[in-house]
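During the reporting period the student researcher (J.K.) took over the structure-prediction task from the postdoctoral fellow and processed the backlog of single-chain submissions. One of the processed entries is reproduced below for the supervisory committee.
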Amino acid sequence: MKLPAATVRNLLLIHWHGADAALDWLTVDGSGRLGRSAHEHAPPAAILAAAASIVVLVPSEPVTLLLAELPARTLAQARLAAPFAVEEHLAAAVDALHFAVAPMARGHWWVAALAPAQLKEWIDDLRGRGIEPDRLLPDVMAVPANESGASVLVDGDRALIRIGQQQAFASDAELAPTLLAAAGIAEAQVVRIVADSGQSPLSKLAAGLGQCSELNLLSKTFAPRHRGRAVRGQWRRLGILAAACLLLAVVYLKLDELRLSQRLAALNGAMEQVYRQRFPDAKQVPNPLAQMRSALAAASGSGVISGTGLDLLTRTAPLLAAQTQVSLQAVEYRAGALVLDLKAPTIEAVDAIRESLASITQLVATLENVDRDGNGVRGRIRLGRKA
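J.K. obtained the following structure tokens:
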């Protein structure tokens, strides 16, 4: 048998009949087809482990089901408002009851109220059988609804009654006709759902799961936690992975900062060397760039520096600092030209730097010589102005 498309798939459906009483259970696969079923104390461990979701239908008699209009937009707001909205319809004080809610139509919510002790009894009995349910639902809510009248499913001496989408309750089978007549439901408006002879009505209830609301008695302090353990474990692992990635990023940034600091130190050293060649009498050079700019500006009587070794080095520094495979080994300024001693993995890398320098600085960049140096090469590039 294949269930309607709206039916929940990949689930284990269980009908609870009483403490230590045998359960009815069946499986529904991903295509909506009914699978294995049995009447026994508990489903086999393999069936429980394979279920993507476990839904348990419990007797509706201890549960008060009401349809209420609530000024709520979220589930949390509805949970807060529900006890006060249905208080006058309840025999017990709202503080002594457990409430569960689910949206039905715009502004209208199903409200289920029951004693917490009853809910705990169901949960404890199921856990004693090795069953950790994802959802507990009053069995009458799984009766397929009849929009134009009532649906009645008789299960032994019990009758599960749905009147449209507005009412759902259980009663003695003998009282069902009287209750339907009192609700103004004519016999012609009643759809009787009959189970196969000698079979559990669970397959009929499975067909109604796709029509029932999202109601789940396992809410608030009774919310299922076992199914979330794997998800929480995944989130925990993702959090650890994210923290590790962040740590690696920080380490990388620190290493990159160290690399750039070393490059800056090398460039400052090169500028100091050029400065000392230009001004051999200088004893200290606290800031090579500032000192050279100041000295050259004073020597030329102008604040414009052009054609000097410092000018050439300043123009080439950004390109050299951005390199990851090519490193500056030494720099020399002579006869108006800047000579860069570079170490690179290949000759092509040195020549690429030469072309880039020529393009960016608008200078004549000449590759003077290239020698093998271990696993790489050492090349000298001469930068000078066009004749």
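The committee noted the following: The domain at 234-384 is CATH 3.30.1360.100 (Gyrase A; domain 2).
J.K. will present the remaining backlog at the next meeting.
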